[in-house]
Specification:
Blueprint: E1 2-6, H1 16-30, E2 34-39, H2 44-51, E3 55-58, H3 67-80, E4 84-87, H4 90-103, E5 107-112, H5 121-126, E6 134-136, H6 139-146, E7 156-158, E8 187-192, H7 201-214, E9 218-223, H8 229-238, E10 245-247, H9 254-258, E11 263-266, H10 275-282, E12 287-290, H11 295-298, E13 305-308, H12 313-324, H13 329-343, H14 346-362
Parallel strand pairs: 1-2, 1-4, 2-3, 4-5, 5-6, 6-7, 8-9, 8-11, 9-10, 11-12, 12-13
Helix pairs in contact: 3-4, 7-12, 10-13
Domain Glycosyltransferase subfamily 4-like N-terminal: 14-164
GO molecular function, one term: glycosyltransferase activity
Protein name: Glycosyltransferase family 4 protein
């Protein structure tokens, strides 16, 4: 297959969708397929794609109607004889789809890690005619989309995210760099992600305030950068939590951080199939997560940790305290690791993706 992944995300942005894109492209390339990444010049995505050994082409898509982006896409499609385009933003699909329909070009499908469409004519008439199918990573999103009645049962394909096999390393995060005192009673709660409204860190800080009142040995480490950094720091200071809640910025080596965690918390308001939670469980760290898309497919409530209502600080606080006090904490982590390793491997993800794309290309009708 000759494939082009396109993603017009901002130059300084990086998230689960971009991580999936680079991983999927790299693994498909290993299997002998010709794979290109189309993105903005000087973007994080460009840098990390090249670091992964992928070929990158410059595609400038800034809106749903992008003449420049369409011309760039047409040139790449002709030169590289592309069979199929995978767009990761709605505007990528619209620009690529219009170009392809006008020129009888390759198939164009949408990959959606979170719900990007809603039941309205805006999407039915401006997206559906330009798209040949959707890949998503949760059955909850497929169920929602299929309820619209816009397409057949096979139009939306669920392909769960996969996580690479973990290498055993001894590179545990140095807690002495942030904690004033460490003793046998110290408990570490880790959370990772962009410091954005979606991720719900404001609720985690509120829950931390309740927990620390009962046990001052519990420390919350939040790794990530984003627009809410200043407001979250202010919230921490106003709550008097400077000694127990630590914002440590972006961490390239999340594995090292998870290695010192007693539990992981995902307080998000919405997600697709959350990579951060998957990484934690794969590292054998039991978790508390809000009940957002994909979570109930990824972990089992009470067996691998606890699932709570998003935005409910009381539930979140109680679940964290309950999990920290659980005598079977290590066993929960072991079961979580076995579950994710068996059900969400990269090999399984890439095999399912490869077969689906080959089937689409084989059945292409224009």
């Amino acid at each position: 297959m000759r494939l082009l992944f396109i993603n017009s995300i901002g130059k300084k942005k990086w998230g689960g969708g971009e991580k999936w894109m680079v991983l999927a492209a790299k693994e498909l390339m290993k299997k002998g397929h010709h794979v290109l990444i189309g993105c903005r010049k000087h973007s994080i995505l460009e840098y990390r794609s090249k670091s992964a050994g992928l070929t990158v082409v410059n595609i400038d898509i800034y809106s749903d109607i992008s003449l420049r982006g369409g011309i760039q896409l047409r040139n790449v499609v002709d030169k590289e004889e592309i069979d199929l385009i995978i767009g990761c933003q709605n505007k990528d699909v619209r620009v690529a789809g219009l170009m392809s329909k006008l020129t009888r070009g390759p198939l164009v499908i949408s990959r959606q890690g979170v719900q990007l469409l809603h039941k309205s004519n805006k999407y039915k008439w401006s997206f559906l005619p330009l798209c040949d199918g959707i890949i998503t990573n949760t059955y909850s999103i497929k169920k929602e989309y299929d309820s619209y009645g816009w397409w057949g049962k096979d139009y939306v394909k669920v392909i769960h995210n996969g996580i690479p096999c973990l290498e055993e390393k001894n590179d545990a995060f140095d807690l002495t760099s942030i904690l004033p005192v460490i003793n046998g009673q110290t408990r570490i709660v880790v959370s990772t992600g962009r410091l954005a409204q979606q991720k719900g860190f404001q609720f985690l800080i509120e829950a931390a305030q309740q927990i620390v009142k009962q046990d001052n040995n519990v420390h919350f480490i939040i790794a990530g950068k984003g627009k809410l950094e200043a407001s979250l720091k202010k919230q921490i200071m106003q709550a008097g939590l400077e000694q127990n809640v630590h914002l440590i910025g972006f961490q390239a080596n999340v594995h090292a951080l998870l290695k010192v965690a007693d539990i992981f918390v995902l307080p998000s308001l919405y997600e697709g199939m959350p990579n951060a939670l998957m990484e934690a469980l794969a590292n054998g760290v039991p978790a508390v997560s809000t009940d957002v898309n994909g979570v109930s497919e990824l972990m089992k409530d009470e067996e691998h940790g606890y699932i709570v209502t998003s935005g409910n600080v009381s539930e979140l606080s109680k679940a964290i305290s309950k999990l920290l006090a659980d005598k079977n904490l290590v066993d929960k982590g072991r079961k979580a690791r076995e579950h994710v390793t068996n059900q969400f491997s990269v090999d399984k993800m890439v095999q399912n993706l490869e077969l689906h794309l080959q089937e689409l290309i084989a059945n292409k009708v224009r």
